[in-house]
Write a structure and sequence with these properties.
It contains 9 helices and 22 strands. It is of the alpha+beta class. The protein has 3 domains: 75 residues, 2-Layer Sandwich (Uridine Diphospho-n-acetylenolpyruvylglucosamine Reductase, domain 2); 116 residues, Uridine Diphospho-n-acetylenolpyruvylglucosamine Reductase, domain 3, CATH 3.30.465; 110 residues, UDP-N-acetylenolpyruvoylglucosamine reductase, C-terminal domain (Uridine Diphospho-n-acetylenolpyruvylglucosamine Reductase, domain 1, Alpha-Beta Complex), CATH 3.90.78.10. Strands 7, 8, 9, 12, 13 and 14 form a 6-stranded antiparallel sheet that branches.
Length: 348
């Protein structure tokens, strides 16, 4: 079909946008476009308002599951790049990072400058725009710990606003962008505050063990040490989405109360329960593995043998196959532990 040019923005018709996601499930969109500036995004907004159609914003596609065989609206791929330093003192540096920036590339840049605060979040796929939406985190670090503010484009009014961290209401893999303000805002950029010098001591035993194995002493610890240890752990455990389709961590870790944590420790000696702030969590990968599903294949999907938290696409083409595999896993974990596990990736 012929492409459309609307307010200098090129818009494609009838596109298989599933190929832009790392799970590689087929799904076509009536319209598809790539935005590289706020002006481009504004044009896209004018277009979907004029046509009275739904929209979906796609970043790196690593946290997106294609549910629709045909999406009757426009998929907007975000490629707004670039970042800049906006503040510095003797302890910290603040950066404004545009939402289309590859997150892992920014982490590696920060670590190369001996900055800390994001080093344990290395190798998390996707773009910066997803960070405040998901409150992305790994190995004891979360975006909420370094976020200063979020610049957004309000869809209804077409105004640009700045939200404080508090206004974003970040919690475990959640934010106002997934609740009250779902589809109300487009994240243009975020401000992150990173610390100079030595990072905080790692919180996760897996990471501590990896650093010890590498012979790194606590007093000599650098953000580069932590990042390299995380990269080694993740490389061993997780598939490369370029080679094996997946959406990274498919399930959220399970939050439990202190009393349930005590009960589980008695019932399952050695269970890896960890405390973050006032919350207790059980690694969902452990629950899936203990349910006998690690490495198992069903409905064209496979529970990854390196990490049971990851669901890989072996031969599935449709969302229906993924949904059947997800339900089987959720049911098996509930039967064994009485705990409900939730999907992490978004759906369109």
């Amino acid at each position: 079909m012929k492409n459309i040019v609307f307010e200098n923005l090129e818009i494609f018709q009838d596109v298989n946008f599933g190929k832009f996601t790392t799970m590689k499930l087929d799904g076509r969109a009536k319209y598809f476009t790539v935005v590289k500036s706020v002006e481009d995004f504004s044009a896209a907004v004018h277009f979907f308002k004029k046509e009275n159609i739904p929209f979906f914003i796609l970043g790196g596609g690593s946290n997106t599951i294609v549910r629709s065989k045909f999406f009757p609206g426009i998929v907007i791929k975000n490629e707004i790049l670039g970042f800049e330093q906006v503040f510095e003192d003797d302890k910290k540096i603040e950066f404004k990072v545009n939402s289309g920036v590859n997150w892992d590339e920014f982490v590696r840049f920060a670590v190369s400058k001996n900055l800390s605060g994001c080093e344990a979040m290395a190798m998390i796929p996707g773009t910066v725009g997803a960070l405040p939406i998901q409150n992305v985190g790994a190995y004891g670090q979360e975006v909420v710990d370094i976020l200063k503010g979020v610049e957004v484009f309000e869809i209804e009014t077409e105004e640009i606003k700045t939200l404080s961290k508090e206004e974003c209401q970040l919690s475990y893999r959640d934010s106002i962008f997934k609740r009250d303000k779902k589809d109300k805002y487009f994240v243009i950029s975020i401000n992150l505050e990173l610390s100079k010098g030595r990072p905080e001591d790692p919180k996760y035993e897996t990471l501590k063990h990896e650093l010890k194995k590498k012979g790194i002493k606590e007093e000599d610890l650098t953000s580069k040490d932590v990042m390299e240890a995380v990269v080694e752990i993740r490389s061993r455990k997780l598939p490369d989405p370029e080679e094996i389709p997946s959406a990274g961590s498919f399930f959220k870790n399970v939050k439990i109360t202190e009393s349930i944590a005590e009960d589980f420790r008695k019932k399952y000696p050695g269970i890896p329960i960890f405390k973050v702030g006032n919350e207790y969590k059980i690694p969902t990968g452990w629950l899936i593995e203990q349910s006998g599903l690690k490495g198992r294949e069903f409905f064209g999907m496979r529970v990854h043998p390196g990490s049971a938290l990851v669901l890989t696409n072996i031969s599935a083409k449709s969302y229906d196959e993924l949904a059947q595999a997800r339900k089987l896993i959720q049911d098996r974990v509930f039967e064994k532990f009485g705990l409900k596990i939730e999907q992490e990736p978004l759906e369109i």
